[in-house]
Structure formats: structure tokens, C-alpha cells
Amino acid sequence: MPVITTIDDLKRLHKRRAPKMFYDYAESGSWTEQTFRENSTDFDLIRLRQRVAVDMSDRSTAATLIGTDVAMPLALAPVGLTGMQCADGEIKAARAAEKFGVPYTLSTMSICSIEDVAAHTTQPFWFQLYVMQDEEFVDNIIARAKKAGCSALVLTLDLQILGQRHKDLKNGLTAPPKLTIPTMINLATKWHWGLGMLQTKRRFFGNIVGHAKGVGDASSLSSWTNEQFDLRLDWDKIAKLKEKWGGKLILKGILDAEDAKKAAAIGADAIIVSNHGGRQLDGALSAIRVLPSIAAAVGDRIEVHMDSGIRSGQDMLKALALGAKGVHIGRAYIYGLGAMGEAGVSKALEIIHKELDVTMALCGRRDVRALDRDVLLVPQDFEGSWA
Ligand SMILES: Cc1cc2nc3c(=O)[nH]c(=O)nc-3n(C[C@H](O)[C@H](O)[C@H](O)COP(=O)(O)O)c2cc1C
């Protein structure tokens, strides 16, 4: 077993162990991938202020996210097809999250169903909803999430229409994979993955199959999205969904201060400043670059979270210092899952936590909740003057 010390180590193992179509599905952005790349490179532009001779004993990364105590202010983001990176992937990720003491978010497009994850975990998790045209399906899935005890609804707003990722089309991405000759050749080298898949029944979209009517090809993410997602989603509908859900609501995919103000006005509990990990509008600004303006616009009215590009505890500290109350990670834990299953997700969380804790100490800070812009050196034109 190689010595794993970084998220990048997990990524390399993920690439080796998961089928190409699923690794590529995770490790890609839309069109030219400019936004996907800049989500990471923009973090590198920000530097940290080293401080010395400061008491760094009794450090704490404990915090709260929408009123829930967490070991560090981080949640696992919803990731479709997680159960294809590794058998029973959603259950494994949720278990690692609950052991660590951070929230897990289950995607609408998961392989394990809401009920299945609830049956195999002890802590409430969050459920992410994509709004479909079929109102009955939406009402039903909201009721299912409530019944399963989900403690927050994460409503994704930046995917009414799917951003194109070239690799998914070229690889013929489906769940489960269709056995074409190139796929079979690739699967022949992934025996550990295959063994896991043979031992589980969870190989289809668990929240969809058997619950949605008139689905053409439920194995194809892109055709299902094109057929079913609600192009007419607007703020009125969001307000109605909020009523229907009646619990904690997080609006995901906000990248503009004007939209953030609307989210605050309808009374959501939190927003996630996000560009979907660079998978939707290619050419949009990185999430870390827009975070300060959004935090300044609504941070006193609504909890501001952030995702897109976080690969280390240092990235996490930068986001918190620029105004996020919490961060969400997508690929960083998916690499862990694809590399080593549940243990890999735990490893990813441990790596990020340790990096956060040590970075805080070296910046002369002891409490994660008190991080502010003062710990950073931010280029003067970081946010940019865009007209
Ligand atoms: C493979 C993959 C699948 C995703 N599926 C979903 C999804 O089903 N629902 C959703 O709201 N966001 C989805 N996202 C976006 C993530 O929730 C999150 O916004 C993004 O991964 C954050 O960027 P990061 O991967 O750089 O951390 C997905 C992201 C990836 C990488």
C-alpha cells in the first residue's frame, strides 16, 4: 500500500482503480474546462500570512453548519453516480462522513437510494434535489427525504440544462456501463472494482428507477437530464418548494450577488457559492473569486457556504477567511472513494482536517470560527474589475 499524504495521492489511485468512464466523469469540466481549471489555480494566487510567537495550544476546528455541530465546517457535496466509483459508494461516503462528524449530501442522481443510505447510517444526512418537470416525482422524493429523516434539502439551481463534458460523450457514460468492446477491455484491468459490483445489487439510479414514470433511458445521465429536468424553475417555484419541504433549505449554485440577495429574501438557511465544480457554465468565474463579493452582500443575512476547487485544508482556510461559514468538497472525497472505498473518504477528511489545523496554527490562529481576511495575503486585483 503506498503512503498517502495528499488528496493528489488519492486521485492517482482513483485513476488506477476505477473504470475510465467514471474517473473521467469526475475529473472533467464542461467545454474548454477553463472554469474547472481556474477553480484550483485561483486558490494558488492567495497566500498565507505566517505569524510567530502566538500561543497555538488548544486549537479547535469545531463549528456549526445550519445549526448542526460539526468537527470542522465542511460537508460532502452531492455527487451523482457515486456508487459507480466504488460499489455502494454513497453508503460508504455517508458512513465516513458520520464517523468524522461532518454532513453528507446524497444526490438525486445517486446509485444507492435515500432509503438505502438511511438504513445503513445512524446520523441524518442532507438530500440534494434536482427539480424535475414531473411534479408528482418531485413531491414524492421530497416526502421520501422527509420520511428518511434528512435534515436539510440542498436545492441545486445551476443545472436545469446539462453543461457538456466531452469525455462523457466519447466514453458513452452510463450506469451501469454498457459492455462495449473498449469498455470491456478497460474493465478487465479493474478487477477489484468489478468484484465489488458483482457483490452488490446497487447498480442503477436508486432514487429514479421504480419511482419516475416515462423515463426513456434511465441508465444515461445526459438523456435523462435532457428529458426530465425542469427548464422553468424560477424563484416562485423555489419558494413553493421551500414550503413543501418545510425544513432547512440550502440553495446551491449561486455565483452572483444579485442571486444571493434573492436567496436571502426567500428565507433560505444557506447558499452555496458554487459553479458546480466547473461542470456547468464554462467561462464563469471561479467560486473563490466571487465569494468575497457575495459574502459582503448577504453574509449578515444568510449562511454563506462555498464549493468548487477545494483540494486541501489550505484551500479550505482561504475560503473560510474570505467569508465562507463552511465549505463543501466534491472530487476531493470522490478520489478517496474511488481509491479505497470508505477508508479512502476517511483518509481524504483526515488529510484536509490536518492541513487545516496545522495551517491555522502557523497563521497564529486557534479557532476556525474566528478566521478572517487578516490571515491572508490576497492580490489587490484578486476579485477583478469586471464590467
Ligand atoms: C462527478 C461529479 C458529480 C456531481 N453530481 C452532482 C449532483 O448530482 N448534484 C449536484 O448538486 N452537484 C453535483 N456535482 C457538483 C458538486 O456537488 C460540487 O458542487 C462540486 O463537486 C464542487 O467542486 P469540487 O469537485 O472541485 O470540490 C457533481 C460534481 C462531480 C465532480
TrEMBL record:
The keyword Kinase does not apply. Its EC number is 1.1.1.27. Gene3D superfamilies: Aldolase class I. The keyword Oxidoreductase applies. Residues 1-381 form the FMN hydroxy acid dehydrogenase domain. CDD domains: alpha_hydroxyacid_oxid_FMN. PROSITE patterns: FMN_HYDROXY_ACID_DH_1 (PS00557), FMN_HYDROXY_ACID_DH_2 (PS51349). Keywords: Flavoprotein, FMN, Oxidoreductase. Glyoxylate binds at Y25, R165, H276, R279. InterPro entries: Aldolase_TIM, Alpha-hydoxy_acid_DH_FMN, FMN-dep_DH, FMN_HAD, FMN_hydac_DH_AS. Its cofactor is FMN. The active site is at H276. FMN binds at residues 78-80, 107, 128, 130, 156, 252, 274, 307-311, 330-331. One of its GO terms (molecular function) is FMN binding. GO terms for cellular component: plasma membrane. Belongs to the FMN-dependent alpha-hydroxy acid dehydrogenase family. This is L-lactate dehydrogenase. It comes from Yoonia rhodophyticola. The lineage of its organism: Bacteria, Pseudomonadati, Pseudomonadota, Alphaproteobacteria, Rhodobacterales.
